[in-house]
Amino acid sequence: MSTAPHFDIDVPAFWQDPYPTLARMRKEAPIAFVPQLGSTLLCNRDDIFVSEKQIDVFSSHQPEGLMNKLMGHNMMRKDGDAHMNERKAIFPAISPKTVRSHWTAQFAGHATRILDELTPDGVVDFVQAFALPFSAECLKSITGLTNMRFQDMNAWSQGMIDGIANYVGDPAIEARCHAATSGIDAAIDDMVPRLRTTPDLSLLGVLLQTDMRMESVRANIKLAISGGQNEPRDAIAGTVWALLTHPDQLALAMSGAIPWLQAFEEYARWISPIGMSPRRIARPWTIRDVAFETNERVFLMFGSANRDEKHFDRPDAFDVRRDASKSIAFGAGPHFCAGAWASRAMVADVALPAIFDRLTNLRLIADKPPRIGGWAFRGLLDLPVTWDA
């Protein structure tokens, strides 16, 4: 165990709103062991920005970690050459060039079809009506698992992210995660013969043309699903909510005074959809007066780093006019999110402009505020809205 001071948290309250606790930790104990989570948390942006790049100390290789046990050994839980080799293998499917030339048009097609089917029939939960199916349909295309329903894509993604954040060891959550991974394996098995015969630019199509072992192919497809559904889903719904509650900032985006990408990047800073990334201490290490021992578990708290007062003025405020370039919502080191370009295209290039162009006078429901929760993964649970027909 590290020599970091102990800091107790109220886990349900932390799930409801982690930011007051994280602000206290940045002030009182920016590196602290939290007994309720069984981990030492790094909360300052500078500590995280430096430590994430020190893979010889803060290792992503976690043989006993929840992700390895539940989803298989994917590239996110590998370091050095092992990580880079698999990252290079998937790159042709999600490179900036492929996103621009291939995926963005498909994303636009999904958005148009889903928006065409929407009607403002009283109160509409925008998470369920658009953000969820749009994110899932895009992810079906990217992964190559076009044989599954968008409802399954979402449910299985949620099952996995709940499982890998199940630090309290709830057996029901673990069982749902196992059911999700079994469903994905079956979908992969169904698509493999087709994509071996007729390869495409999907992740599965690209990986089947490499010498990657099938168990690693499966693990990396599950990785893409675990992060590739909830992050765009939550960012779309969340950015819509943030802009609707800040109409002056929405006007800036709709007029073109600020790009939609800037609104998305500010939301990703303000409410980090992926708020934490775990690491294993690979060798004894000291940060200032805190000494770490080998094999300790450390949480890099991105959600805290993105509200660090040393780097962001009024960090608890959503402001599309700010410079959010120091945000580490997508990570900061060699594990920088490989799907970042696809995510930006889905949310900023396609979803946000289409939503506000197509849904006239889109507005919140005054007596039905949205619910939001999570700390390792955080997002809106619902978004009640309506608009003019």
UniProtKB/TrEMBL annotation:
Organism listed in the record: Bradyrhizobium quebecense
Family: Belongs to the cytochrome P450 family.
InterPro entries on file: Cyt_P450, Cyt_P450_B, Cyt_P450_CS, Cyt_P450_sf
Keyword hit for Oxidoreductase: yes
SUPFAM superfamilies in UniProt: Cytochrome P450 (SSF48264)
Co-factor(s): heme
Pfam families noted in UniProt: p450
Protein keywords: Heme, Iron, Metal-binding, Monooxygenase, Oxidoreductase
The name this protein goes by in its record: Cytochrome P450
